[in-house]
């Protein structure tokens, strides 16, 4: 019986959080890093990591194949499987779960570990919480056999202050995964990397979200404010569909879930689909001309006002860069 | 090209209604929005003569979603009367339907609006051994390739693949149409095939969920809202932290 945590180069900021979650839930586990980036640190007392290089044109189908065959060769019967909830795990994990016949939960935001560290009743009595219905419902699941695959919302473990003792000193060299990922001719892919000088939306401490209330004329002001605050910018589906922001900056049920220390919502009414994405924000500040919208009712701080004026005032107060 | 569109009816049977607040139930009836987009796209390809046949299949017991699909223009509607919230069981049922119908392309939502599992298309592709694309926001047919694009962890990806394939669609792929009243009335009496054998085969298969849902609670977001008087107060909060 083997527990496996899969990390990848694109979610490095979440590694400590995912490692913490894994340490809480299972006795021992293996770590597989998908990607080529060098490992800078390793938690103390862990098995050496495994590293799986992925050629640029490979599809998740081939990654899945390489992982399944590799586990076979290593003699690992995978019973527990965890990844962070991001665009790679959404593709890869269901395929792995299907291959291994594991039941799977998506976007788990809490693991109840009562008793999991006691010798006899190990992983069987775990309970998992996850949102459904765009965050309106919290589902409670339990496992009876200790076989599961999960994608986790990493922000939860960070906000809970779970910490790992990360070894500052020499790191072990990752071992090469026994099976290589093949590029497949029938399915070609090419990437257009996302470049931005702003902080990453999922790891930024301050995020500015814009909604229907922000139009093209206000966007430059929002960007100036983001620069002053060192904030990432995201938007609701309405804004993305209107072409104001690129699709990878969508916050909400069909986009990203964020967990900043503060979230400044400008002109966002607060549809349920958007609220699901910002539940983990520690402080929500909303500015809108209408004080009765769901988000204005829910925010920690609400300011009713015309965005153009508010933005102008804020920029006047902000220290010039 | 024969397209199978796997649709989901929201609030199917007693499953969802278990412990949901009544307001939620009222606001969600009929076809899942992601299924609507998948169906819309299949119908467009049939109108452009890329697809020859569009078959809608629903794993569940409610007919409403399939009636809507027929009213919108699906050629055929198939119901597999099976109630499960386990994506492995749904994928198994769809795989069995696919083995009977032999479609070239299976379209479905990348996720559902209710449970939001993001699993069914990927499990189905892995089960059938087909290529897959997930969260696709653009799709064109340049024989013999399907070309598409979608967001991935590494960036915007552009794909090219051969059939057969399973494709999970993003809401951005197409804007669904509305069914006309005459078509809605006609669809009321249109035949829906009931594939009990497939449901029976899945129910008796050795699939073991292993995870059990034992409670559902409405989420309450508890925050005390402080109303700020003016932008000076907001400015002080943002730049000075109080």
Annotation keywords:
heterodimer, A: 321 residues, alpha/beta, 9 helices, 18 strands, 26% helix, 26% strand, B: 242 residues, 9-stranded mixed sheet, two-stranded antiparallel ribbon
Structural description of this entry:
The complex is a heterodimer of chains A (about 325) and B (about 240). The longest helix of chain A has 15 residues. Chain A is built from 9 helices and 18 strands. Chain A has about 325 residues and is of the alpha/beta class. In chain A, the strands form 4 sheets. A 7-stranded parallel β-sheet of chain A has the order 6-10-5-1-2-4-12, with helices on both faces. In chain B, helix 4 links the parallel strand 4 and strand 5. The radius of gyration of chain B is 21 Å and the shape is globular. Chain B is an alpha/beta fold and about 240 residues long. The model of chain B has no long low-confidence stretch (mean pLDDT about 85). In chain B, the strands form 2 sheets. Chain B has a 9-stranded mixed β-sheet with strand order 9-8-7-10-6-1-4-5-11, with helices on both faces. At the A-B interface, helix 2, helix 3, strand 6, strand 8 and strand 9 of A face helix 5, helix 6, strand 7, strand 9 and strand 12 of B.
TL;DR?
With 321 residues, chain A is of the alpha/beta class. Chain A is 26% helix and 26% strand.
Helix percentage range of chain A: 25-40%
Structural class of chain A: alpha/beta
Name the strands of the widest sheet of chain A in spatial order.
6-10-5-1-2-4-12
Low-confidence stretches of chain B: none
What is the helical fraction of chain B, as a range of percent? 25-40%
Q: Largest protein interface? A: A-B, 82 and 71 residues
**Order of H and E elements of chain A:** EHEEEHEHEEEEEHEEEEHEHEHEHEH
Shape of chain A: elongated
């Amino acid at each position: 019986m083997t527990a496996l945590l899969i990390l990848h180069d694109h979610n490095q900021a979440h590694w400590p959080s995912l490692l913490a979650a894994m340490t809480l839930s299972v006795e021992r586990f293996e770590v597989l890093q998908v990607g080529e980036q060098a490992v800078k640190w390793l938690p103390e007392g862990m098995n050496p990591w495994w590293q799986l290089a992925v050629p640029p044109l490979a599809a998740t189908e081939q990654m899945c194949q390489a992982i399944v065959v590799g586990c076979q060769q290593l003699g690992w019967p995978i019973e527990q499987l965890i990844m962070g909830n991001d665009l790679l795990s959404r593709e890869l994990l269901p395929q792995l779960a299907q291959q291994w016949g594991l039941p799977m939960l998506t976007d788990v935001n809490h693991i109840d570990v009562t008793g999991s560290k006691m010798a006899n009743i190990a992983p069987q009595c775990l309970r998992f919480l996850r949102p459904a219905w765009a965050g309106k419902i919290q589902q409670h699941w339990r496992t009876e056999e200790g076989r599961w695959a999960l994608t986790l919302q990493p922000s939860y473990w960070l906000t809970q202050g779970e910490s790992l003792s990360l070894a500052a000193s020499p790191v072990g060299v990752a071992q090469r995964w026994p099976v290589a990922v093949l590029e497949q001719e029938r399915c070609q892919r090419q990437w257009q990397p996302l470049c931005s000088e702003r902080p990453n939306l999922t790891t930024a401490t301050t995020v500015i979200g814009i909604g229907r209330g922000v139009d093209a004329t206000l966007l430059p002001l929002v960007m100036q404010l983001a620069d002053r605050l060192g904030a990432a910018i995201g938007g609701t589906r309405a804004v993305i569909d209107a072409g104001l922001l690129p699709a990878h900056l969508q916050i909400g049920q069909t986009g990203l879930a964020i967990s900043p220390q503060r979230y400044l919502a400008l002109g966002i009414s607060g549809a349920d689909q958007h609220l699901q994405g910002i539940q983990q924000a520690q402080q929500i500040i909303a500015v809108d001309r209408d004080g009765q919208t769901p988000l204005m009712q829910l925010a920690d701080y609400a300011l009713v006002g015309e965005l153009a004026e508010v933005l102008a005032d804020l920029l006047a107060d902000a220290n010039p860069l | 090209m024969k397209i199978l569109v796997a649709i989901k009816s929201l609030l199917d049977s007693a499953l969802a209604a278990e412990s949901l607040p009544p307001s939620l139930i009222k606001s969600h009836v009929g076809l899942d929005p992601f299924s609507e987009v998948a169906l819309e796209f299949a119908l467009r390809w049939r109108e452009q003569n890329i697809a020859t046949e569009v078959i809608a299949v629903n794993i569940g017991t409610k007919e409403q979603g399939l009636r809507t699909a027929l009213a919108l223009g699906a050629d055929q509607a198939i119901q597999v009367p099976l109630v499960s919230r386990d994506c492995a069981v749904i994928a198994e049922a769809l795989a069995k339907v696919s083995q009977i119908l032999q479609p070239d392309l299976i379209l479905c939502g990348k996720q559902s609006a209710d449970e939001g599992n993001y699993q069914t298309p990927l499990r189905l592709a892995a089960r059938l051994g087909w290529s897959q694309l997930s969260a696709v926001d653009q799709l064109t047919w340049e024989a013999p390739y399907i070309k598409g694009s979608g967001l991935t962890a590494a960036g915007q990806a552009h794909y090219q693949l051969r059939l057969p394939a399973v494709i999970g669609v993003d809401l951005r792929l197409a804007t669904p149409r509305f069914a006309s009243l005459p078509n809605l009335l006609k669809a009321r009496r249109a035949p829906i095939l009931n594939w009990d054998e497939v449901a029976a085969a899945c129910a008796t298969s050795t699939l073991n969920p292993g995870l059990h849902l034992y409670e559902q609670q409405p989420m309450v977001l508890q925050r005390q809202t402080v109303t700020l008087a003016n932008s000076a107060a907001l400015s002080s909060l943002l730049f000075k932290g109080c």
